[in-house]
Design a protein that fits this description.
Layout: H1 3-9, E1 12-16, H2 25-36, E2 40-44, E3 50-51, E4 54-55, E5 69-72, H3 79-87, E6 95-98, H4 105-113, E7 117-119, H5 124-131
Parallel strand pairs: 1-2, 1-5, 5-6, 6-7
Antiparallel strand pairs: 3-4
Helix pairs in contact: 3-4
Amino acid sequence: MNLEEILRQTRTVAVVGASANPARPSYGVYRYLKAHTDYELYPVNPTITDIDGDPVYATVADLPVVPDMVDVFRRYEDLPSVLAEVLALPSLPKTLWLQQGLFHEQVGRDAHAAGLQVVMDRCLKVDHAQLVGR
């Protein structure tokens, strides 16, 4: 499946590592997605409780749904534990999206082997704006 198909078929997105700090890239991507898409968004960050009044969940396991996509803004060394959280869900998301600057070969292989589509080192905001945001 190509990027445009992934973006068009996605309905729910967990943003892991979402931030309430406007200086952080994850904040900009979250705000873009909220303003310019129909996605149901679920920010995930154990250190904050809301982003501009939207509730933030401590872990992926705390989400009220299994999202179609898990969009990850975390450090390289945290990616295996993020994947472990995702694989522990009652059913699997369709896509694991590692944001621009994140590429982890083993996480990608393991996610793909589990049945997830894997996108690495790409910005969800940029790709959405270019491919479906028109």
